[in-house]
Amino acid sequence: QLQFVESGGGLVQPGGSLRLSCAASGFTLDHSTIGWFRQAPGKEREGVACIDSSRGITGYADSVKGRFTISRDNDTNTMYLQMNDLEPADTAVYYCAAGSSCHYTAFNLWGQGAQVTVSA
């Protein structure tokens, strides 16, 4: 069975850090395109970061550049999103995903979501 199990969400103060994890099973991440998305209340889901393995490209949304880092550990088959200098605007449910390219419609496996709340 192909699936992700997400962990690492929570409540953090502005300026703080969190790391989200997504453990994959049933497939390997090393040749997959992987991405992180988020959805805030009343807003559409938006892309945050992506690694396109076939093209060797890593990309970030402008709103998180310099603060967030996407990575993966092929030994543990786990992907991560390190989030630093968090802002209240980062509050959302975060989803990991895997697919064939960094276009939103190319992602076909999703994690269950992790709530991140940034508040004083």
Descriptive notes:
- By secondary structure, the protein is mainly beta.
- It is 0% helix and 52% strand.
- It is built from no helices and eleven strands.
- Strands 2, 4, 5, 6, 9, 10 and 11 form a seven-stranded mixed β-sheet that branches. A four-stranded antiparallel β-sheet has the order 1-3-8-7, with no helix packed on it.
- The radius of gyration is 13 Å and the shape is globular.
- It starts with a strand and ends with a strand.
- The mean pLDDT is 95.
Query: For the report, how would you describe the main beta sheet?
Result: 7 strands, mixed
Q: Residue ranges: pLDDT <50 for 5 or more in a row?
A: none
Which sequence of SSEs, written as H and E, runs from N to C? EEEEEEEEEEE
What global shape is seen?
globular
Work out the number of β strands. Answer: 11
- Count of DSSP helices? 0
Strand content: over 45%
Structure keywords:
52% strand, seven-stranded mixed β-sheet, 0% helix, 120 residues, mainly beta, four-stranded antiparallel β-sheet, single chain, 11 strands, globular
Give a brief rundown of this model.
The chain has strands spanning 3-7, 10-12, 18-25, 33-39, 46-52, 57-60, 68-73, 78-83, 92-99, 107-110, 114-118. By secondary structure, the chain is mostly beta strands. The chain is globular and about 40 Å long.
